[in-house]
Amino acid sequence: MKYDMLLLRFGEFMLKGKNRSRFEKTIINQVRSLLKPYPGASLRKEFGRLYVDLGGESHTELIAVLKRVFGVMSISPVKVTASELDQIVETAVAFMDERECEFKEGTTFKVNVRRVWKEFPSSSHEMNHLVGSPILRKFQQLSVDVRQPDIELRVEIRDQGTYIFNEVIPAVGGFPLGTNGKAMLLLSGGIDSPVAAWSSMRRGLEVECVHFYSYPFTSQRAKEKVIDLARALADHAGTIKLHLVPFTEIQTAFTQLGQDNLIITLMRRSMLRIATKLAEREHALALITGDSLGQVASQTLPSMNVIGRATELPLLRPLVMMDKQEIITLSKQIGTYDISILPYDDCCTLFVPKSPSTNPNLRIVDKIEATMSQLPEWVEQAVEQTETITLHAGETFIVNNQQDEDHEMKEEWF
Ligand code: ATP
Ligand code: MG
């Protein structure tokens, strides 16, 4: 079917209250940045809704992209015609004609006309009949069911034109990006932290990412992999800032301590200290990690306790109660899984000791850190030597192969 535009609906909370215009502006900005790779498409705002004129761009491709806009509840592809009786009837019949392959014996439908432009001569009720009758005549296999129809043909008569549509595709929902503040996410090359990033963004947090690398212990490729992950996140957020922190010096110092079972605990604490300083610099009010309770030694409750004390900022762990399988499913849906499973060397996986502590002792950890007089200096240096890059939507090379599967899109929102 050749559609003319997409209709984007906001969440209900958008319709009232003093936040409305801020929320709308945020959504419009995100839509704009996601539409950059599609120059034909253009944006129009109306009370409680957004319209994207397709301008020749593929509607399936744009729906796949715009379903990701945080705060958008659903999307409908729309056919536009003039607000004149003949044209409306003709377009509605043509619309159904294109769907005919889906009709079976007993398929039911209903026409739902909304006359928004009150000067249009026929009432909504009259129009339901005027549009419905020729459809019934033409498609003998259809019958009317006003309560639970298989197909609901919606017709909105407006001053500037009439919109005809029937699909309502669920979108990601949540809060518009950044309307709940900003947080700094610790992004590794694994499966979990990108999912934690996306979950936080859906809750209305603007997310900046920080990654620790230990060149030459970790390769250039490992760093590029993390850049690719941040880029995949930018396909949701529009843009993503990624802070790349050199961690070699601190890591080397820890490996020379002879306290192998505490290395991960110590490294994580230093990561949190550096991330806290970056968060303060960037005016972010929380840290986020991809921790999931019990998944590995550093994610037991005692480990989380000792590690988490290294920061005074709220430490958010959106995946803490999720099963690995649920996390994997999400990572596939948001398009980070294929990047995450590429082989890589992380500064933590490289030096994983034989028996990392699942129950570190806070006093011992504090004491070890106190003996390392240069540690605060190294933390400062790491912050100073941090390199920041910005990634944009549409730069990802892994193709979303769901684009043509219209049916899948109806059921899922990501
Ligand atoms: P992930 O899949 O996110 O790597 P994981 O289950 O492999 O998680 P860990 O490797 O123990 O778990 O890491 C726990 C969390 O610590 C990660 O989710 C991430 O937030 C943070 N983290 C670990 N390594 C790094 C790193 N090199 N740079 C930034 N953050 C990191
Ligand atoms: Mg990891």
TrEMBL record:
Chief location category: cytoplasm
From the UniProt annotation, give the residues forming the signal peptide. none
What InterPro entries does the record point to?
Answer: Rossmann-like_a/b/a_fold (IPR014729), ThiI_AANH (IPR020536), ThiI_fer (IPR054173), ThiI_N (IPR049961), THUMP_dom (IPR004114), THUMP_ThiI (IPR049962), tRNA_STrfase (IPR003720), tRNA_sulfurtransferase_ThiI (IPR050102)
Record GO terms (molecular function): ATP binding; CCA tRNA nucleotidyltransferase activity; tRNA binding; tRNA-uracil-4 sulfurtransferase activity
Which pathway does UniProt place it in?
Answer: Cofactor biosynthesis; thiamine diphosphate biosynthesis
Query: Which residue spans traverse the membrane?
Result: none
Q: Which GO terms describe its biological process?
A: thiamine biosynthetic process; thiamine diphosphate biosynthetic process; thiazole biosynthetic process; tRNA 4-thiouridine biosynthesis
Q: Where in the cell is it found?
A: Cytoplasm
This protein's UniProt keywords: ATP-binding, Cytoplasm, Nucleotide-binding, RNA-binding, Thiamine biosynthesis, Transferase, tRNA-binding
Where in this chain does the record put each THUMP domain? 60-168
**A Gene Ontology cellular-component term:** cytosol
Q: Where does ATP bind?
A: L186, L187, H211, F212, R268, G290, Q299
EC assignment: the record states 2.8.1.4
From the UniProt record, list the reaction(s) this protein catalyses.
Answer: [ThiI sulfur-carrier protein]-S-sulfanyl-L-cysteine + a uridine in tRNA + 2 reduced [2Fe-2S]-[ferredoxin] + ATP + H(+) = [ThiI sulfur-carrier protein]-L-cysteine + a 4-thiouridine in tRNA + 2 oxidized [2Fe-2S]-[ferredoxin] + AMP + diphosphate; [ThiS sulfur-carrier protein]-C-terminal Gly-Gly-AMP + S-sulfanyl-L-cysteinyl-[cysteine desulfurase] + AH2 = [ThiS sulfur-carrier protein]-C-terminal-Gly-aminoethanethioate + L-cysteinyl-[cysteine desulfurase] + A + AMP + 2 H(+)
Known role: Catalyzes the ATP-dependent transfer of a sulfur to tRNA to produce 4-thiouridine in position 8 of tRNAs, which functions as a near-UV photosensor. Also catalyzes the transfer of sulfur to the sulfur carrier protein ThiS, forming ThiS-thiocarboxylate. This is a step in the synthesis of thiazole, in the thiamine biosynthesis pathway. The sulfur is donated as persulfide by IscS.
Q: Which family does it belong to?
A: Belongs to the ThiI family.
Q: List the PANTHER family.
A: TRNA SULFURTRANSFERASE
Q: What is this protein called?
A: Probable tRNA sulfurtransferase
| Annotated organism of origin | Paenibacillus xylanivorans
Q: What is the lineage of its organism?
A: Bacteria, Bacillati, Bacillota, Bacilli, Bacillales
Gene field: thiI
